[in-house]
Amino acid sequence: MNELLDFRDFLIGLGLNSKQTEIFQGILVAIIFIIASVALFYITRFIIQKIFKSIISKTKTDYDDILIKEKVFDPVSHIVPAIIFIIGVKYATTNPIIIQLVRDLTFVYLIFAFLIVIFRILNTLNGIYEIYSKKRNLSVQIKQYIQVFKIIFSIAAIIFAFSILFHKKPGAILAGLGAMTAVLLLIFKDSIMSLVASVQISAYKLVKVGDWITIPSKSVDGDIMDISLNTIQIRNFDKTISTIPTYTLIQEPFINWSGMVQSGGRRIKRSIYIDMNSIQLCTPEMIEKFKKIKFVSDYVTKTQEQIDNWNITNKIEPPINVNGRAQTNLGIFRKYIENYLRSNFREFKKYSKQNFIIDNKVVEYFVIDDPEEFKKDFDSNIERHLEIIEEKVVIKNVEKFLIQYPEKYILENMYLYKTEKEIEEVIVKGAKIEFEKFNKITIKEGDFSDDLTLLIRQLKPQDNGLPLEVYVFASSTEWGKYEEIQSNLFDHIFAVLPEFGLRVFQQPSSNDFHSFVTGEQKNTTKDTITNKQ
Q1: What contacts 279, CB < 8 A, 6 or more positions away?
Q2: Confidence (pTM)
Q3: CA distances to 191, 282, 414 from 442, in Å
Q4: Which end of the chain, N or C, is more open, meaning fewer C-beta atoms within 10 Å of its C-beta?
Q5: Positive or negative, the Cα torsion across 524, 527, 532, 533?
Q6: 435-454, pLDDT tens digit by residue?
Q7: 125: which residues sit within 8 A by CB, 6+ positions away?
Q8: Quick one: the chain helix, strand, coil %, rounded to 5?
């Protein structure tokens, strides 16, 4: 203090008046405090980072790494400059109004510094939860709720800031905001709607990050990148990014393809149009030819025996097949496609249900067709879950069985699948974590799913032929592999179709018309020459 008085006297001695001296002294002291504050800010932050990094780096858990990534403790270094300004402002000026204003602004600065700390703590909690949810395979997100807390803390910080600047109690300012309720509701309308939508999305598990969704009304088709309070970001398959309000998923119809991914199979539903003029009853020569085709040999032989016996019983004699029963080339072709698909099934180790009649009631049980092999995976307690009905080993209560052995079997698609545990490493919030996955055990690889629907059916005849629809599920949900499987299947179908005496219907092309006209001209020329001769 004495040094400042001496410096003030020095300035007066240079010929400055008291007002000029005060201004010059204030500016000089303020510059010194600003330089000191900035220097101490960086020194404090450096010390804080060093201390906490050295402590956290020695721990084995992944959760505290989020503290470093979110820089939770860095805003604490803002306290030092604030203290310098609160204490040092009286050395820069003697004006009480300026002193009070600087101190008020400094306290507001501290409020928002603490608000940043709270934000980063909330971000850290969200990051920790993401790691935990990944390890536990949880689908519920809390990011939108974290954002709600951020809004609440932000409003509280603003109220406290105004109470300091205007020297009013926070309660009085809050009461004043009551008159602005309608305006606030209008301002935060989207946030309120999105908050309600977020609760519904989480409660009903409608979507989660990573899900593939399609919103036809918004031309959105891609994977969810992020779900926040107000918006959802989706990366479309053309690599564009769509941002939609969160409440859109409640107000607009959308398709979530995650069920398809979880099932392990992706549907193929495509028709080929058969020229109806090529459909015919099979002649003996055709039957003999079809008996040599691997996928329908047994079917043709067995079916023909049944037809011959029926015709003999009903005294139907060839060659007039319309009086009796006969196979068609289209019927045999349908069976060919079905057996071709079945030969390329991917098969899981699984058990299916079977109906039993007990006390005049139809009940369903999972039948264990290899009981000795099945029991090898369990201890002696497995016997209490098994029962013998009609000489078949069944599981009495599959729910209780799965509760006791959740890591060995799962219930899906009306089958009981055997699973095996797999440890997978992923990076979440910059931290490498390991989590357990339970995969179905595959006993035979193939391109099509044996546990999902398979249909080869005729649809309503149309002007462009008879649609023969192939309805099957590819064993891969990955886009590229799926398209390859589908293309290979129909390549084969179109290639073998003529072997069954069938033709694909297609509209005539310009080349067909050209060939037709050329042929007519040649025939007309030949007839003219013949007549002249």
Answers
A1: 328, 329, 330, 466, 502
A2: 0.65
A3: 47, 40, 17
A4: C
A5: positive
A6: 677 889 999 999 999 989 99
A7: 142, 146
A8: 55, 20, 25
